[in-house]
Amino acid sequence: MNDLIAPDLKAQAVIATERFVLRPLRQSDAGLIAHYTQDRRVADGTRSIPHPLPPGAAEAYVKRAIAHDRDEDVWAIDGSNKQLAEVLGVVSLTRIGPDQSELGFWVGSGFWNTGFATEAVAALVAANPHHSRTLFAEAFQDNPGSARVLTNCGFEYLGDAESWSVARDARVPTWTYLRKMG
Predict the structure, then answer these.
(1) What residues does 74 pair with on adjacent strands?
(2) If exposure means fewest CB atoms within 10 Å of the residue's CB, which of 19, 78, 91, 125 is most exposed?
(3) In b/e form, how buried is each residue of 119-135, taking b as 16+ CB within 10 angstroms?
(4) Beta bridge pairs of residue 178
(5) pLDDT tens for each residue of 88-109
């Protein structure tokens, strides 16, 4: 399918920030996504990225992200307009109810502690492309950096829980967060 965008993806907003744009994924993103997510530390920070990354997993992820019947909108954090990589990481919203979405994000380990994750999450929250009244998110308790991203973007701590991590092949303690929208 090359890098053609499916017609209904035009409804997925492109969101500009000071240092990058958030844009829908395209098939050419699979290489950088595979590169970053092969890092055990990145995979361990997520629920769904396996480690080691199987062949074709990044391509399958992009295919799901651009599918007509997707329930998750995924944006590449694209820094190419500022001489950075085309993909620095991703941020996503998954519809979990009529007015509720769950936010997820990761950035490549080479971009940790740069503020890219906070800038991407803040931009997505401000744009609120799902028109959600409530956003939920979580962070693994051994990943305080992700928790700081969420609290810096106005998410409030709800409580402790657990989520399954594919990379770790285990249940992992999480902190859960809520953000009420305007």
Answers:
(1) 92
(2) 19
(3) bbbbbbbeebbbebeeb
(4) 136, 156
(5) 999 999 999 989 999 999 999 9
29 within some domain: yes
Q: How many domains is the chain partitioned into structurally?
A: 1
DSSP 17-39: -SS-EEEE--GGGHHHHHHHHTS
Closest CA to 101 of 24, 178, 158, 21: 178
Q: How is residue 150 written in tokens?
A: 């969420």
State which amino acid sits at residue 158: L
For residue 97, give the CATH number of its domain: 3.40.630.30
Closest CA to 112 of 146, 77, 151: 146
pLDDT of residue 153: 98
Residue located via tokens 């962070």: 139
Residue 65: which domain range? 7-132
**Sole residue written with tokens 């979580």:** 138
Q: What angle do CA 97, 10, 83 make, to 5 degrees?
A: 105
29 CB-contact burial (10 Å; exposed 0-12 / middle 13-18 / buried 19+): buried
Residue 178 lies in a domain: no
The answer to the question of residue 79 being in a domain is yes
Is 149 buried (19+), middle (13-18) or exposed (0-12) by CB count in 10 A? buried
pTM: predicted TM-score of the whole model, two decimal places? 0.93
Q: Rounded to an integer, what distance in angstroms lies between the CA atom of residue 30 and that of residue 24? A: 12
